[in-house]
Amino acid sequence: MSYYSGDRCGDEQLFTPEQIKQFSQLKRFSEWMQADSKLRAALDTEEGLSTEQEQWMRKIGIEFEIEEISFFWKHPFDVNAYVTLVTKDREDEAEDHLKELVVKYPLLKLWAQYMKTRCDCTEFLEQWGHLASPNEKFNAWRKRRINSAKSELGFFGMRIGHPVFAFELNAGCSVGCWFCSFATEKLSRTFNYPEKREEALSIVRQCGELFGKEMAMMALPYYRTEPHDNPHYLDFLKDFEKETGAVLCTSTAVCHDFKWIRDLLDYYQKREDGRIYYWPRLSILTLDILRKIHESFTPMEVKDIELLIQVKDNVRPKVTGGRILEEQAGLRAGGGFDSRDRISLLSIFPQGTKACVRGF
Questions:
Q1: Is residue 355 assigned to a domain?
Q2: Do residues 304 and 276 make contact, with C-beta atoms less than 8 angstroms apart?
Q3: Start-to-end C-alpha separation, the chain
């Protein structure tokens, strides 16, 4: 959404080119660590990475020596505590052992500063969360839902924009993600946007008339669906932007179509306004998909977008609903990987939400 604009959250204004290069590699290692249980197991042994794993690390553009970034798995709770302090501008309150950790691992300080640029966007989320429509009953209902999300999701709940509208440009979904809490049916048809363009835009205009233009800009251009399924999805994004001025978000699980991903990157990143938009978000369903992404895109090319690791043995817990109920009980309960591994990393990778929409 447009509140992810880089005029407030952009790293180029805060970091040197070398630092940007470094945190892009830290981000990449974090993604790999979340997705690869074999990597996590190797990091927890005296032997460390195998020759093959070290070669892969270099191949995907991670140039650090492994000890330089060992704070990720050796001190996960301390990392989370320090990052939290930095994001809240309370670094001076860090206890001595955290200060010593930063001296030992200079890259930890950079990682925390990088994470802060992402969390600084919560100011935009707060502003959008306080927007009001002419309908007071709707405002009261929406405020309750926002407060509920914050209380249940904790830190993660502070990073949700709570869009008011969501559109479905398809009936069903071709992907069928294993964790889909909607258990969306299989793709049956797509909205013919070229033929029904005026009809679609008239709905957008009416949303603005009913709830105010600012709220109409708070929209998801997909819901229970996969954007890639509609061949005219990008046309809708561009028309919506012309109509409202809003740059809407995109989350896609079709990560094997590199032309599709590059087209999205071009839309969000090659912009005349010079802003940084943290989209598209790529849902990584398997380690093999992540490997192909890491092999095909440099760390710098995808430094501003989120690769949301959705592999089955990831430490991030899933909302227990929809299609995930068809999975084995052990997986629903958080099984499938070492419990110690899960506990140590949960503070870094919290549970998300099934849907951030607070409206229609």
A1: no
A2: yes
A3: 16
Q: Output phi, psi for 171, to 5 deg.
A: -105, 110
Looking at residue 9, what is its pLDDT? 44
Report the half-sphere exposure of 98 (CA within 13 A, side-chain side). Answer: 19
Distance CA 118, CA 350 (A): 15
Tokens of 108: 């930890």
Q: How far apart are CA 2 and CA 194, in angstroms?
A: 25
Instruction: Tell me how far apart the alpha carbons of residues 46 and 281 are, in angstroms, rounded to a whole number.
Output: 35
Please name the residues in contact with 339: beta carbons below 8 A apart, sequence gap of 6 or more: none
Q: How many independent structural domains does the chain possess? A: 1
Between CA 257 and CA 280 the distance in angstroms is: 13
Q: Which residues contact 207 (CB under 8 A, 6 or more apart)?
A: 164, 165, 215, 216, 219
Q: Which residues are registered as beta bridge partners of 307?
A: 282
* Owner of token pair 């929809």: 322
Residue 352 lies in a domain: no
**What are the pLDDT digits (tens) for 265-291?**
999 988 887 777 888 999 999 999 999
Range of the domain at 105: 2-346
pTM score = 0.84
Instruction: Return the beta strands (E) in the chain as ranges.
Output: 165-166, 170-171, 189-190, 219-220, 251-252, 281-284, 307-309
**One-letter identity of residue 103:** V
Q: Is position 356 within any domain? A: no
Structural domain includes residue 329: yes
